[in-house]
């Protein structure tokens, strides 16, 4: 092994001598490079190889290349690149090849090699990398697309890109993304040929030796790709994706028309088809911008276009009366309403249109649950408080088991300071099942704290502990503890803590809150702190794997050591108990932190 490493270091000597001779590096820096290279070489020659060692070596060589590049720019020296950079580049490629040979399944390693080749313009090497990578990772469409794009955009080879896409489709015959990118590539190739032909014609050159097929120039290859894909891929999303690609090319008007007709024929009942057809109206019939075009004219034109869109949507919700169709319509209305405009008339029309869409969907019982919240927000913003109350009530009747809907209605009533809030809370917890009602109880007690007496609020807290599930009651116990301390002070919170300790389950945060409250007192009693720690450790001292529970033992020991009333002699027994109760990796972590604590480093 040593001989092999020495040979590799000797291979570096010519490039290092050149670096010193031309003044890019000093002799001291050359020695430092050799020492570092020697250490890195030994790591990658060990019997047990580690990926991190190869990555570190590669990163070091890349950093060296970057440093040489900066030094060259600083002193203005641009010669001897073959003797210096070339040998380093070859070494990096060799390191990548060795690492990839060992860890073939690591896609990120392959991509790092690809990125390195692109950065240093190693086109010949990159072609080999792509070939090897696709042979091993042929099951990943994104890698085929990456390789084909490189051939098309960097190598300017449409034929090689087409060949890669065809190979990819043999492995992934129903992959929409591959078809989309293949479709895009054929249109780009057609556009490229059209530009070449136009340039030759402008230069009045003879096109006899160049073969520019009219079919290819008009995007016939892309049409073939689309038709082939349309037979295999069933879904409106694919057709919309290729249509958006085709729209980027002015010469593909006929192709766009064919895709649109196919879309309307095959997916006439799909909401996304209607959504696209409606939004198309925004792009049609726009005024050309001239000096005489006023803001009022632009606003008027935009109003007309949006009305045409809405007319299509109105037709759509009659033809396809589904929740998804209404969702598309309302989403469009909200998008337009949220767009900034200086025209108050346009903004008002957008608001009226949006509210009308919400109302019609609601009356048809096809408004999705998630959109009720947006409707209520819009009504409140528009100061339509009475309507907001009606809508919230209607939503809870339709989705009576939904906690989110009840919470939304209650928030509206609280914001409007209604007299029916308590009655609504009672109805909400009655209608909604006990599981998942935590948000309702949290909202109820928060509202009660600001509006009701302490006695009523405490009764509500006690009621919530029984009404929620055991897991949810943990949160309510923490809130109850906080409220007791804020409202009536230390003595009250001690009584509440004692009563809550009789009913499991608990959270660690519950005990930590009580410990923190005790520490804020003057004087802070160690006897009480010890009680809280002991209770917490009985619950969380052993089986849980979270580090916070392990830290509980350390905090207890620190408390005994630092508190004026603490007993340092107890630390040994606490340590012994911790070692006995903690399990797995927590033991090792506890021992290391306990050692740091003893030496004063924690």
UniProtKB/TrEMBL annotation:
<keyword id="KW-0698">rRNA processing</keyword>
<feature type="domain" description="U3 small nucleolar RNA-associated protein 6 homolog C-terminal">
    <location>
        <begin position="307"/>
        <end position="582"/>
    </location>
</feature>
<dbReference type="InterPro" id="IPR055347">
    <property type="entry name" value="UTP6_N"/>
</dbReference>
<dbReference type="InterPro" id="IPR003107">
    <property type="entry name" value="HAT"/>
</dbReference>
<dbReference type="GO" id="GO:0032040">
    <property type="term" value="C:small-subunit processome"/>
</dbReference>
<keyword id="KW-0677">Repeat</keyword>
<keyword id="KW-0539">Nucleus</keyword>
<dbReference type="GO" id="GO:0030515">
    <property type="term" value="F:snoRNA binding"/>
</dbReference>
<feature type="domain" description="U3 small nucleolar RNA-associated protein 6 N-terminal">
    <location>
        <begin position="9"/>
        <end position="91"/>
    </location>
</feature>
<dbReference type="InterPro" id="IPR056907">
    <property type="entry name" value="UTP6_C"/>
</dbReference>
<dbReference type="Pfam" id="PF08640">
    <property type="entry name" value="U3_assoc_6"/>
</dbReference>
<protein>
    <submittedName>
        <fullName>UTP6 protein</fullName>
    </submittedName>
</protein>
<dbReference type="Pfam" id="PF24892">
    <property type="entry name" value="UTP6_C"/>
</dbReference>
<dbReference type="InterPro" id="IPR011990">
    <property type="entry name" value="TPR-like_helical_dom_sf"/>
</dbReference>
<comment type="similarity">
    <text>Belongs to the UTP6 family.</text>
</comment>
<dbReference type="InterPro" id="IPR013949">
    <property type="entry name" value="Utp6"/>
</dbReference>
<dbReference type="GO" id="GO:0000462">
    <property type="term" value="P:maturation of SSU-rRNA from tricistronic rRNA transcript (SSU-rRNA, 5.8S rRNA, LSU-rRNA)"/>
</dbReference>
<dbReference type="GO" id="GO:0034388">
    <property type="term" value="C:Pwp2p-containing subcomplex of 90S preribosome"/>
</dbReference>
């Amino acid at each position: 092994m040593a001989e092999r490493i020495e040979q590799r270091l000797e291979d570096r000597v010519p490039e290092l001598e050149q670096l010193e001779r031309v003044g890019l590096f000093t002799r001291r820096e050359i020695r430092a490079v050799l020492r570092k290279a020697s250490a890195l070489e030994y790591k990658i020659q060990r019997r047990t190889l580690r990926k991190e060692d190869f990555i570190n070596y590669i990163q070091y060589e890349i950093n060296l290349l970057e440093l040489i590049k900066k030094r060259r720019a600083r002193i203005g020296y641009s010669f001897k690149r073959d003797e210096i950079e070339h040998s380093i580049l070859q070494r990096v490629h060799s390191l990548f090849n060795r690492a990839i040979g060992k860890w073939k399944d690591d896609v990120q390693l392959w991509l790092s090699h690809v990125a390195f080749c692109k950065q240093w313009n190693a086109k010949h090497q990159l072609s080999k990398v792509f070939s090897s990578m696709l042979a091993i990772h042929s099951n990943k469409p994104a890698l085929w697309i990456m390789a084909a794009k490189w051939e098309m955009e960097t190598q300017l080879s449409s034929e090689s890109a087409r060949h890669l896409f065809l190979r990819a489709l043999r492995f992934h015959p129903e992959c929409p993304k591959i078809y989309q990118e293949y479709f895009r590539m054929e249109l780009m190739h057609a556009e490229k040929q059209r530009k070449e032909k136009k340039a030759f014609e402008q230069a009045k050159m003879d096109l006899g030796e160049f073969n520019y097929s009219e079919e290819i120039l008009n995007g016939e290859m892309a049409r073939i790709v689309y038709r082939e894909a349309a037979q295999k891929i069933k879904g409106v999303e694919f057709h919309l994706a290729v249509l958006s690609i085709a729209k980027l090319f002015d010469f593909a008007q006929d192709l766009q028309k064919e895709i649109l007709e196919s879309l309307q024929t095959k997916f006439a009942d799909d909401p996304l088809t209607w959504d696209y057809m409606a939004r198309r109206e925004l792009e049609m019939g726009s005024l050309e911008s001239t000096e005489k075009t006023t803001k009022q004219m632009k606003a008027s034109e935009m109003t007309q276009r949006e009305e045409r869109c809405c007319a299509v949507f109105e037709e759509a919700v009659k033809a396809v009366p589904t929740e998804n169709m209404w969702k598309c319509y309302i989403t469009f209305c909200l998008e337009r309403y949220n767009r900034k405009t200086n025209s108050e008339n346009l903004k008002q029309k957008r608001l009226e249109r949006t509210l009308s869409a919400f109302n019609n969907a609601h009356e048809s019982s096809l408004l999705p649950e998630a959109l009720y919240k947006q409707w209520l927000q819009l009504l409140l913003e528009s100061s339509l408080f009475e309507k907001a109350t009606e809508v919230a009530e209607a939503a809870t009747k339709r989705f009576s088991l939904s906690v989110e809907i009840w919470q939304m209605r209650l928030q509206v009533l609280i914001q409007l300071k209604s007299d029916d809030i308590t009655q609504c809370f009672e109805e909400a917890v009655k209608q909604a099942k006990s599981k998942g009602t935590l948000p309702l109880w949290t909202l109820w007690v928060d509202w009660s704290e600001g509006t009701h007496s302490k006695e009523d609020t405490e009764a509500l807290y006690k009621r919530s502990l029984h009404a929620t599930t055991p897991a949810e009651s943990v949160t309510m116990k923490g809130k109850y503890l906080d409220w007791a301390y804020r409202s009536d002070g230390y003595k009250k919170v001690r009584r509440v803590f004692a009563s809550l300790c009789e009913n499991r389950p608990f959270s660690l945060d519950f005990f930590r809150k009580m410990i923190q409250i005790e520490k804020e007192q003057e004087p802070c009693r160690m006897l009480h702190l010890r009680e809280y720690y002991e209770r917490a450790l009985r619950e969380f001292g052993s089986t849980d794997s979270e580090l916070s529970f392990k830290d509980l033992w350390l905090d207890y020991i620190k408390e005994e050591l630092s508190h004026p009333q603490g007993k340092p002699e107890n630390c040994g027994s606490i340590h012994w108990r911790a070692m006995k109760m903690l399990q797995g990796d927590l033991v090792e972590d506890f021992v290391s932190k306990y050692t740091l604590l003893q030496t004063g480093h924690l």
